[in-house]
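Look at a sample.

——
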Amino acid sequence: MIRSLFNNRWIILLLFIALEVYVFQAIKDITKNASQPIRWTIYGLFGLLSLLSAVFLFSLSSVSERTSTYLLSFVFVFFVSILFCSIFLAVDDLRRGITWIVYKLQHKPAPSEGSAISRSTFLSWLGVIIGGSFFGTMAYGISNRYNYKVRKKTLHFPNLPEAFKGLKIVQLSDIHSGSFTNKAAVERGVQMALAEKPDLILFTGDLVNNRAIEMKDYMDVFNQLKAPMGVYSTLGNHDYGDYVEWPTAEAKVANLNRLKEIHGELGWKLMMNEHQIFERNGQKIALIGIENWGAKGHFPKYGRMDLAYPGTENIPFKILMSHDPSHWDAEVRPKYPDIDLTLSGHTHGMQFGIDIPGFKWSPIKWMYKEWEDLYQENKQYIYVNRGYGFLGYPGRVGILPEITVLELV
């Protein structure tokens, strides 16, 4: 999405220049009383950031897809930062313009410059502080992109067979291997998951950004994921290659087929609208895995519950892996009230928000009712994993990458 916004680079560059000139006036205003070395240092830093943005903007087509993600993120963050600052400056200019018109119409002398300058300087400070804070926060968030957090939940189900009481599940989601640049850090996260000694590992989709080749350097990392009951996986919306252009339709199909093979080579059982029955001491639970199914119009609906569910009707406890959490309210709860636990991902918590005990917020909540952590409706639960990897913006602000540990009792 961010990439599409910057496709017409010359128009974006002109907009950049206009905003930068506008913001520079505010910087000059708030530094007018500073010493010359400080002023020129600030001018130079702002000029350097502006120059880097222009260079990065025109370098996107000549670097790898992974590198371009980082360059584009820098351009986007800087653009939004100066846009925020410009909004405050525009408010001040609008105020002064309206004041001038009113006094002209009333044939009154213009107000004293002293108070106007004071208000202008205040808004300049406010704009620069807000824009600078946004830039600094997003820059800091890059350091969190591999800051994996283990989140543990104990879930009580009265209908869980006694033989499966204490079942420990590790859920991973949204690996997005095409965004990684630090293999050692990614492997550290895998070891954190294994240290939980899960009985079962479930991956709920988006192994790659677009192309199966993205997994090449990470096969020996993710094939370390092992569990006594196995590792099971599903596909997410990014796994189908729908968001890039392919030379032929056959190339797109070949990419998806290769990705399916990769799941097998990792030792994972890819569930394509199917189910698996687990049995202990004569007691059974069912795991259902479907392809991506999103309630939002622009997300694919490849999932087929009508294929995956039959055969599980008489199993007393059911777990569903479905990548997109909007599926839960749209189809799972209304049509399949006996699915006890749904595991999803997809939202990443937007990689931006506030995530503290007692308070959770992210802009993504305006799009998804269930966007992170655990939700319950009647006897049904859904857990939305915040994602292991990252996409677009190569960082995490407030919403850290997640390894979910669920104990069923």
Remarks:
- Residues 65-105 form the longest helix (41 residues).
- DSSP finds ten helices and 14 strands in the chain.
- The radius of gyration is 26 Å.
